[in-house]
Design goal:
Elements: E1 2-5, E2 16-21, E3 26-33, E4 44-49, E5 52-54, E6 57-60, E7 63-70, E8 77-84, E9 88-96, E10 100-102, E11 106-110, E12 115-121, E13 127-134, E14 137-140, E15 150-156, E16 159-164, E17 173-181, E18 184-195, H1 202-230
Length: 231
């Protein structure tokens, strides 16, 4: 397929950018076209991948393009076309695997409850993997062998859900969903915080404790006052 940055008229020093998501091997043609009314005439054109200059072919008088055969992740990255004349114009294409979306990066729940984590991708991955991060280690979650603790569902081709049952304090930590595409992997991390079931009662317990202290103080004062009167 072809991706273009049309009407390349950005002010000098103001780059144009476009993100292109790719999940499978394909051939991509990137093209920059200068508007016919642009005051930038006969510019010097350079295509770069990062800092590396790459060759291009001219399609028309005001259009320059490159064709890329994307077979693996090594061809992903940022490609820029740079037009130089009296000023410099730049357009950049960012080629990357699809990103993962999730409900949030932090989940707070309570002991004995069930934690639910959902990850979604704009494209269909070949597989989903869930794991917990413990220090520098990645501990894979195997729902089939730990069915009493974990349930993993593929809600649709591009949506996965992890449920952690009967939560304990030991379940708190960082969890990750990993989507594998033909062109590479992408992951999303979520932090799970597990609170004690008494946590919601703490403010109430604090108030009750303050009341008890106040009542005890009043009673002791009255007892002391009565003893003093008898003397």
């Amino acid at each position: 397929f072809i991706e273009n940055l049309l009407n390349f008229l950005g002010a000098s020093g103001t780059p144009l950018e476009r993100v292109i998501t790719l999940s499978n091997a394909t051939t991509v043609e990137l093209s920059c076209r200068l508007d016919k009314n642009s005051h930038l005439k006969s510019p010097q054109v350079t295509w770069k991948r990062g800092n590396e200059t790459i060759s291009h072919k001219s399609k028309t008088e005001n259009s320059w393009s490159i064709q890329l055969k994307i077979e693996d992740s090594s061809k992903l990255g940022s490609y820029s076309c740079i037009l130089k004349g009296k000023e410099e114009l730049r357009a950049t294409f960012h080629l990357q695997v699809p990103k993962i979306e999730a409900r949030g990066k932090r989940i707070i729940t309570y002991e004995k409850d069930t934690a639910v984590m959902i990850c979604k991708s704009g494209s269909t991955p070949m597989s989903w993997t869930w794991y917990m991060i413990s220090g520098s280690k990645q501990i894979a979650i195997n729902a089939s062998s730990q069915a009493d603790k974990y349930l993993i569902d593929r809600l649709s081709a591009n949506v996965t859900r992890l449920r952690i049952l009967k939560l304990t304090k030991e379940d708190a930590g960082v969890y990750c969903c990993d989507a594998t595409f033909q062109l590479g992997k992408v992951k999303f991390e979520m932090e799970l915080k597990v609170l004690s079931i008494l946590a919601p009662l703490k403010p109430f317990i604090a108030v009750v404790a303050e009341v008890l202290i106040l009542l005890t103080t009043i009673v002791l004062y009255e007892v002391y006052s009565k003893r003093k009167e008898k003397r």
